Amino acid sequence: MRAPTTTSFALTVFVGLQVTLGGGALRGQAPADTGLLTRPGQTVVIRGGWLFDGVADARVQNEGILIRGGKFLDVDGGLGSYEVQGALVIDLDDEETIMPGMFDLHAHHRVGFGTDDTEETGWVPMLHLANGVTSTFPAGELDPEGMLEARRRIESGEQIGARIFNSGPYFGNARNQCPAVRTHEDSCEHWPADM
What we know:
Structural class: alpha/beta
CATH architecture of the largest domain: Roll
Mean pLDDT: 73
Helix content: 10-25%
Radius of gyration: 20 Å
Number of helices: 4
Low-confidence stretches: 1-14, 17-35, 190-195
Order of helices and strands: HHEEEEEEEEHEHE
């Protein structure tokens, strides 16, 4: 088995951007200058390479993946019965593998390591995507409004990054720098004894 190449890594990121998170562009929501290669409602065909679906124990030869309007219409079923004229065709090399995006159920967008903590909504979502994570759940947010705005930018195609399924603010005093604790009544005075 060959090791992944720079080309295969770049293709993985490209496919993730175009298919999974480029969904805003595929749905016609992205502005024209985002740099995404797809048009609203465009058909995308991914041929060749290998397919790992997360169900089987091993990867199999990819018989073809068909995406239209941001939705997967067929995965590994062959493309013979579909009209694919005018589609964006991505041909994978034999050493390249396509797989479902991962979902990080405890993602951290918070940076600062205890001093001047902040919610980083620019490069962290892109970093998740570059590592194969296509959806995130922050499990507590320092800046819920900022995270909602980042989600809106990603979903509209204005920003590249993993989808954000917002969790809302931290609860209690464990994160006492959280702006959600604004008054004495908002705080948990006897944390953790009151839990």
